[in-house]
Amino acid sequence: MRRGAALVALAIAARLSAADPFSADLLRDRLWDDGRAEYDVYTASELREGVVRPARVVHVVVKEPFDLRTRVKSERPGAVDVLKMNQVIDVATGVYGFHQMQSTFWQRATGSVVKLSLSSNDSCGNTFKEGWLEGGFLRFVFHTYWDGEADGERRVPMPPGGIFADELPMKLRCLRRFDPAEYRVRLFPSVIGSKFGDPRFADATIRVLPPASGAVRIEVAHAGGVDRFVFDEAPPHLLRSWKRADGSSLELRKSIRLDYWKHGRPGDEKLLD
């Protein structure tokens, strides 16, 4: 009986792995139509220059109109709704610091990524990266302050089931189901960093573990190790914690819905206390 049950479980896992495990339902939810953003403040640590250091990380998830031709926010006719996630990262490193923001844009109608971007600056220089899907390829342009990759462009074939490491905090919230299962994907590494390097899609495995205490636990095994995520079991499945293979981590300190673009006055920062 035990062997038979194990075989049934493996068959179910294999069947789930063969299908797209993600849905656009959460992206299309009316939650995002209230004119505010989800503003998540994390107690964090980030690996920079070989050392895990205290950091301030904020995730901002918000709906906005988007022009697919120019790939920017636009009110022009033909604009589509996207959901955007900004990961805002500040890390002190001695007498200088890293100030970075990585953005991912998903088309609400389909759930597909339409744009990735990163701005990174520190006391040494500025870096900018932008990627989008075009004709079955991921097209990436980059401008860094490193010799050998000052300005460039790469076209990377987009594999079936390809996803991006930097979209995982939101992408994993969009799983069709949170029952224990295992999914095989092709994962593009994080673009958060001042260098471009030679990023490529590689095999990775998403494992949904049995829920515990109202939380969904998910592991993502990739070439660099295992990242461990904890999400609320109840919608909209907020990211509670993220422990990365490199020693970096996030712990949710506060989550509010906020029209943050209206709160730029002195003292408004207390909203995040």
Q: What is the fold's blueprint, element by element?
A:
Elements: H1 2-18, H2 25-28, E1 37-48, E2 51-67, E3 72-73, E4 80-93, E5 96-107, E6 113-122, E7 125-134, E8 137-143, E9 151-157, E10 162-164, H3 168-171, E11 181-188, E12 202-208, E13 215-222, E14 225-232, E15 239-243, E16 249-258
Parallel strand pairs: 10-11
Antiparallel strand pairs: 1-2, 1-16, 2-3, 2-4, 4-5, 5-6, 6-7, 7-8, 8-9, 11-12, 12-13, 13-14, 14-15, 15-16
Number of strands: 16
Classify the helix fraction into a percent range: under 10%
The main sheet comes to:
16 strands, mixed
- Secondary structure class reads mainly beta
Helices, by number, come to: 3
Radius of gyration: 19 Å
Strand content range:
over 45%
Mean pLDDT: 92
List the helices and strands in order: HHEEEEEEEEEEHEEEEEE
Runs in which pLDDT lies below 50 for 5 or more consecutive residues are 1-18
Q: What can you see in these coordinates?
A:
By secondary structure, this protein is mostly beta strands. Helix content is 9%, strand content 51%. The chain contains 3 helices and 16 strands. The protein has a 16-stranded mixed sheet that branches. The radius of gyration is 19 Å and the shape is globular. The N terminus is likely disordered.
